[in-house]
Write a structure and sequence with these properties.
single chain; 12 helices
Length: 383
Amino acid sequence: MDRLDNTIRPYAWGSPTAIPHLLGTEPTGEPQAEMWMGAHPGAPSRTDRGTLVEVIDADPEKELGPAAVAKFGPRLPFLLKVLAAGAPLSLQVHPDLEQAREGYADEERRGIPVDAPHRNYKDANHKPELICALTEFDGLCGFRDPLAAAGLLDDLGVDSLKPYVDLLHAHPEDAALREVLTAILTADPEEMSRTVAEAATACTRLGGAYAPYADIAHHYPGDPGVIAAMLLNHVRLQPGEALYLGAGVPHAYLNGLGVEIMANSDNVLRCGLTPKHVDVPELLRIVRFRPSDPGVLRPEASPDGEELYETPIDEFRLSRHVLPEAGSAHDLTRATPQILLCTAGSVRAGEHDLTPGRSVFVPAGEKAEVSGTGTLFRATVVA
């Protein structure tokens, strides 16, 4: 096993205290948004053998196992994170694999630099993801029923929202949602800014179900994403609950600490709540305009104590082990690569003592015996 030294990304929306509290370190006063564990070239984990990218590149089949290399190529196909949202993240959506390949190839043909601020596709991969709450965690996930969204907007009493309310009563539902989102994102910026300001005042006055949107407007005054956010389901996860976010599903994280795992990709189409580029035509091509339940996941327990978060993709597999007794050992050996992350208590993994926020990389087939009293998240692949 390799103990991981991980980079913490200081994005502006990050909580200044949540990750330091998990790690038992002093806050720096700066936002600490994401701690990355994996072999993403932007911030690979470091080991005594070099970066995890270097370790894997030196012998992919030894580190990842023949089955994983055959299925995903000579790279770790997932990125594991601890995510600490102190403010809302951008409202966003991810492409499916075919859309990502098409979009990447098109931007390559057009010669758009991969680091250009208006580039949508940084790679040719999809980016399904799963977020599991460590604290209460607020987010937005998928479209509300259009009539429910119409009622939410109508009760604000803002005249300039009435056309959107009328559109949401139209049929079919997917066309109504498409037309409203398009209208919101292409509205005159000054007029939309005034609408958002009125809506924010009403949300603050009404409170209750409107409180999340008042908070979003506080962080992003005048942003059309504030109105777009009201088309989506608001969900509050309790610790241990999770959300799976597949292709085309609009979503945003609002507040809380969680463990996130995703396919190793940077492809994001933004809908709002951001100063970054919003490509409305491409966004509308990617979004799946159908109402859905957020689909809160709770782990399925197996007889050996593993609690698995079921998802429909193979690039990652996330499970949790709650170890109740210091004396008992559990064998987590697999023929696929693993990252083990402690989030509570004290866990012994091979030769390494893990406290909250500490992690190890386990090469494919390497003996992985764990013991202690605490909570351990296990990230691997299906191969």
